[in-house]
Amino acid sequence: MDALAQVIDRAGSDVHLVGHSFGAHVGLAMCLRGEKRIRSLFLAEPPTPSLLEASGDHEAYSEFRKTSGALVAEFRRGNTLAAEVVIDFYGGKGTFASWPERLRHFVAQTTPTLILDWESAYGSNISPEMLARLDQPLTVLIGRRSHPSVRLVGAILCRNVRDATLVEMEDAAHFMIGTHPGAVAGCIQDHLHLVERAADGKAAPATPFA
Length: 210
Hints:
Elements (H helix, E strand, L loop, with lengths): L1 H10 L3 E6 L1 H11 L5 E7 L4 H6 L3 H19 L7 H8 L3 H4 L2 H9 L1 H12 L5 H4 L6 E6 L4 H13 L3 E6 L6 H4 L1 H19 L7 E3 L1
């Protein structure tokens, strides 16, 4: 989050923060830490399992734990393609195998970072009570074909944030920024227009930042 704060410093103004997956989780955590320079949030499927646990959705939370546990176990056994279990959790069975070899190689090489990301997400301790204190307008984008546990995170976010909108993308799963880039861009544009119209000229325009 310190790195993100430095980038916002360089923007020189308030920002609209756009994040996908773990980037969306980091953006949410940044706002909850009290970063007031974020004018609004657009979050595409943030993996925030601690929110499921705090909300009492233990079955959905266990799906995250089971997946990350399998990732760590396979990696420790020396499976260079251990990340497949996570990619298929998010995108559906066969997603990892369908990716180009170059992309699969990159994911395999960065598996240690992926494991650290999961550990960080579990340690965030985000609760519905914390979400109720968010002042920023929020749009959460989920895919209709995404894993139910991931979709549930989005629903809980919008249920507990004061100014929140849930958008569902038909025929899309977690990796929608690659499979449906134009549609995602359109959703971001709609979010920005909505937020700026609501401001009604009362504040200086913010800088879109992803």
